[in-house]
Design brief:
The protein is mainly α. It has helices spanning about 45-55, 70-85, 90-105, 140-155, 175-200, 215-220, 230-250, 255-275, 305-320, 325-340, 380-385, 395-410, and strands at about 10-15, 15-20, 275-280, 285-290, 340-345, 345-350. A two-stranded antiparallel sheet has the order 1-2.
């Protein structure tokens, strides 16, 4: 299959995540397919996904976080999920094409943008070059690192791929799959060492915080100088640390890094679980939590959009088996959806405390779908809430198919 490239994208926001909508003839003209509410993924579903992704546009840079939770980041995660359940090499190759583009778009240390540090940091600037806060860069970089590390991890898990050559290598990242994975890991570690660990992790407590440098305080338009990182952004950072730890473990090349990266993720996960408020609704254990990690009074109850990242952060930690997160600890998240957020007509409140506020109840999708593992009757609700959107949103479709496949297999 020949994959095509184009450059036009349009993002819109909806409850539970960001979704891509057609903006011009350059956008995919195909329709994604979700055929049934149960059973293994079908050949027709896989082919429809591949056809859609063959036309998919990849952003040329990370402006407006296009490579974080925008189309670029969503495409990579969707491809990874679909490769996990199909082992289709064309899907992996398409993912690698995109992660190559991601790595190539990183700030150039020789002639790139000078950031708030005064250096040309190895980050993915998310502001236009002429914006007032063009030098700002922060926690969102963790998610870009995590997306690229996802491709490396999938390669490293399959030794049968390692010696095989990848068809194209326009950036000189490595001719074989193993070479490509090693380049990813090596380059991502540089971003971790020179920026993420250096500026966003407390060396004593291993907790995340925004930079405490006066340079950051002076140059940021809305400076969160030195403050704890919100939970959704901790999930972005955990994406980088967790997947790179897994990559180094598969490579068996740096037990020190594995240990150091795991400590940071475990500290974040344990902190989150220690700060959620336990409530009982209809005799079911539920959680309440804030957007902010330093808000014990829950003055800012988490909303569904940011909360989707909280959920995937915890779910990845659970799936990894590395940090002691149990199903019993995940079940209250699922109960929160069922007994607090759920509204009539397969709709959901926009906040985790059930508050509707000025906005009517809407759909809930994205990473919340993963909670179906802990409460199976949620899955039909997620399907009903997102069936139409799944026709044009590859990450939604991939999450529905991946979850359906997992429920069928377990």
């Amino acid at each position: 299959m020949r994959f095509l490239r184009s450059t036009i994208l349009c993002l819109s926001f909806s409850c539970g995540g960001f979704f891509l909508h057609a903006a011009s003839p350059a956008e995919p003209t195909k329709t994604l397919l979700f055929e049934k509410p149960s059973g293994q993924v079908t050949p027709h579903e896989v082919q429809a996904f591949k056809d859609f992704m063959a036309e998919a546009t990849f952003p040329k840079d990370n402006t407006h976080n296009a490579m974080v939770y925008g189309s670029g980041g969503a495409y990579v995660e969707a491809l990874g999920l679909m490769y996990e359940i199909t082992a289709d090499p064309e899907i992996l190759n398409r993912m690698i094409t995109f992660t190559d583009d991601m790595l190539a778009a990183r700030n150039n240390p020789k002639n790139g943008r000078v950031m708030w540090t005064g250096e040309r940091d190895l980050v993915w600037p998310n502001k236009a070059a002429d914006s007032p806060d063009a030098t700002d860069s922060s926690t969102e970089n963790g998610d870009v690192v995590g997306h690229i590390a996802y491709a490396a991890k999938l390669i490293l898990k399959n030794k049968n791929l390692w010696a095989k050559k990848i068809g194209e290598d326009p950036n000189g990242f490595g001719a074989t799959y193993l070479d490509r994975a090693k380049t990813y890991v090596q380059e991502l570690d540089k971003t971790m060492d020179t920026y993420i660990v250096k500026w966003l992790v407390d060396p004593e407590t291993h907790l995340y915080h925004f930079p405490t440098s006066k340079l950051y305080d002076k140059d940021s338009v809305k400076s969160p100088w030195g403050k704890p990182v919100p939970w959704n952004q901790q999930a972005m950072l955990n994406n980088a640390f967790l997947r790179l730890a897994e990559c180094h473990e598969l490579l068996n090349d740096s037990p020190q890094r594995v240990k150091a990266y795991d400590v940071v993720v475990k500290t974040s996960v344990d902190s989150f679980l220690s700060r959620v408020k336990h409530v009982t609704i209809a005799e079911h254990a539920c959680y309440q939590w804030s957007y902010s990690s330093d808000d014990p009074t829950l003055h800012y109850p988490e909303d569904a959009a940011h909360g989707g990242y909280d959920i995937i952060g915890m779910y990845r930690a659970y799936l990894s088996g590395r940090y002691g997160v149990t199903a019993d600890q995940m079940i209250p998240f699922a109960n929160t959806v069922t007994y607090i957020m759920a509204q009539p007509g397969d709709k959901f409140a926009g906040r985790t405390n059930g508050e509707l506020g000025k906005h009517p109840a809407g759909s809930l999708g994205g990473y919340w779908i993963c909670l179906s593992e802990f409460k199976h009757d949620l899955f039909p609700q997620f399907v009903a809430s997102n069936q139409e959107r799944a026709k044009t949103t590859p990450l939604m479709t991939a999450l529905l198919l991946w979850t359906r496949n997992r429920l069928e297999s377990h």
